[in-house]
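Data availability excerpt. The first of two example chains:
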Amino acid sequence: MIHPFDHLLVLGLAVLFPIRAATFGYRRLRDAPADEVPRRRLALYRQIIRAQWALALVVVLLWLWQRRPWAVSGSRSTRAPGCSTPLASSPRW
């Protein structure tokens, strides 16, 4: 069952994050002196990575809280022939 938070997450990812990136992130790079650009770019990359991992954690916690079955997440573990551990998650399309 879809929870209202699912809609908020999509709204944030599809609408708010791109607006924020266009207005704040790229502006910081554009307005930076040439010698500051690499440092600011690295800071922006780290900020984006932290935000994405935080969102991933929120989604996992939401799924645990709602007791959603992992099978409906759209990914599954696959095993290579002769391999005893899962290699990766691949989308079921």
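And the second chain:
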Amino acid sequence: MPLKAGFTLLVDLTGMKAHPLSVQPVHLQAQQMMLARGLAQTAEVCASSMVVFQTGAISKQSQMPLRQFTSKEEAEAFLDALPQTHTHRVAHA
């Protein structure tokens, strides 16, 4: 099923200890591709302050809209509260 513009992304990074340098260019490219396809908002769930810093920096570089959380419930509530144009969600666990 193709994504419609305005989709949101929920990313669970609680198992990630650090964001390896070798995958950062891949994640940057993936973010740019999602933005080109209409990504409206991303919510990340992070357990590590290092991951928060690293993924935040990549998102700033790609200009991907990002909000970071410490719980999946908070992230889902944030995405659910967005205007109706952001109802298409892709989840990654």
